[in-house]
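Handoff note, outgoing to incoming analyst
You'll be picking up this chain. Sequence as last confirmed:
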Amino acid sequence: MNRADAVKLLPETYARALTLRDKGCDNDAIAAALGIVPEAIGPLLRLADAKLQQLLHAPPEMQDRLGSLAASIEATDPAEPAGAAEPPDA
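Most recent structure output, in case you need it:
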């Protein structure tokens, strides 16, 4: 299983934190994006890294099952419609 597939299997907060860190965001930016205090980012990233490592080092038969799950999640994950994140006009 590759890292990208493993990240998709993590709980959303862990996945977002790792993705933001990978993009070069600092702890303050990650905290703001996740809506949590900056002091929580260090422990959150350590947990996310640990969970990611567990997925990446799972036995081969488990990786096959997890890889299939990641593929099905990706196939069924609807794309966000354009403009969906924008607030409505007041």
